[in-house]
Amino acid sequence: MGYSSSTEVVEAFWSEVWKARNPDKIDDFVVEDFVITSGGERIEGRENFKAWVRDFLDGIDDSGSMSSRPSRTRTAAGSHHGGG
C-alpha cells in the first residue's frame, strides 16, 4: 500500500472500491471501528460500511447510471482524528 500522500490514498480508494465495484477492498483502507455519517444515517464499523457500499452499488447499473430506483444525491464530509 505505500502511498506518499493523502490524495493517493483517496484516489486508490476510489479506484479500488468504487470504480472496481469491490467493497471487499475496503479492508485495505478502513479501520475496524470506522464510523461515517451519510445522509443523516450513522454507519458504524467496517463490515456495516461494506454492506452500505454494496447496497449503494446495487442501485447503479454498469453504465454508471442509477437503476430504475428513485435517485438521490449524497454529500460526504469527514475528519481524521487518529494518528498517522
Structural class: alpha+beta
Radius of gyration: 14 Å
Determine the N-to-C terminus distance: 14 Å
The run of helices and strands is: HEEH
Largest sheet descriptor: 2 strands, antiparallel
Helix content: 25-40%
| Total helical elements | 2
Tell the overall outline: globular
Mean of residue pLDDT values? 84
Strand order of the largest sheet: 1-2
Low-pLDDT residue intervals, each spanning 5 or more residues: none
**Topology, number of strands:** 2
Give the percentage of residues in beta strands: 5-15%
Explain the overall architecture.
A hairpin with a 2-residue loop joins strand 1 and strand 2. This protein has helices at 6-19, 46-58, and strands spanning 35-38, 41-44. It has 84 residues and is an alpha+beta fold. It is built from 2 helices and 2 strands; from the N terminus they run αββα.
Brief summary of the model shown:
This protein has helices at residues 6-19, 46-58; strands at 35-38, 41-44.
Task: Provide the descriptors you would attach to this structure in a database record.
single chain; 84 residues; alpha+beta; 2 helices; two-stranded antiparallel ribbon
Please specify the SSE layout and strand pairing.
Elements: H1 6-19, E1 35-38, E2 41-44, H2 46-58
Antiparallel strand pairs: 1-2
